[in-house]
Design brief:
single chain; 227 residues; alpha+beta; 7 helices; 8 strands
Length: 227
């Protein structure tokens, strides 16, 4: 019939157009779903944080619900919905739904554990860190994982509308920690700044730097002695 080839050609092009639109919509839908998945995905523990995420130093947010000592805390990860979600109160089983975070760059006095005595000012260091971050929403920048599986990270926070503070810097500034010089040390490009903060605390004899001769022992020395 006259015009049948033309009609067939038009029909074919319409089908191609329809398939193309469908593919685009499916692609957009998949991309949106994938994006939403990552926006809403919650890290239960440090085991959920991949090496790829650490290498990219992808910052995430959460609430600090426990402080173990002057350089270790537990964060309940809150993704995109974090401002509106419910944060559980401290209770048993924290290891199953919180991320163990080791502050990068610093080493605080050791608390008593496994029958080992506490270092001087370890309780005060723990209290200072708790005053800074406990119950507060923090930003966590992952840098590595240590031999215990803890996330080594930079932890920052803000009080009301004040400037953002780095928890590790504040511990150093108060003389409640030293710069960590051990293996796999992570300084996030701030070693020079950290050394200046530590030197200032030493000069002012704040915290551990004000201890009498014979009382001070660095956390690194303590750990070597009590292996």
């Amino acid at each position: 019939m006259p015009g049948s080839d033309k009609d067939t050609s038009l029909s074919y092009h319409h089908q191609l157009l329809l398939y193309g639109k469908t593919a685009i919509y499916l692609g957009l839908g998949s991309s949106l779903a994938f994006g939403l998945y990552w926006m809403l995905k919650r890290y239960q523990t440090s085991a959920d944080i991949s090496e790829r995420t650490i290498k990219a130093q992808k910052i995430f947010h959460g609430y600090v619900i426990d402080v173990s000592d002057g350089d270790t805390l537990r964060v309940y990860h809150t993704p995109f919905w974090g401002w509106f979600g419910t944060v559980p109160e401290k209770k048993r089983g924290l290891t199953k739904y919180t991320i163990s975070v080791r502050l990068s760059a610093v080493d605080a006095p050791e608390v008593a554990h496994f029958g080992k005595p506490a270092q001087p000012l370890s309780a005060e260091a723990k209290e200072l860190l708790a005053r800074q971050v406990l119950g507060r929403r923090v930003s966590v920048k992952p840098l590595a994982k240590d031999q215990y599986g803890r996330l080594v990270a930079s932890v920052t926070y803000r009080r009301l509308l004040g400037p953002r503070r780095d928890a590790a810097h504040e511990m150093l500034r108060a003389g409640m920690a030293t710069i960590y010089r051990g293996g796999n040390a992570q300084y996030d490009g701030q070693l020079e700044k950290l050394e200046k903060i530590e030197a200032s605390a030493k000069k002012a004899k704040r915290g551990i730097w004000g201890l009498k001769k014979g009382e001070y022992e660095s956390p690194a020395e303590y750990k070597r002695k009590h292996k």
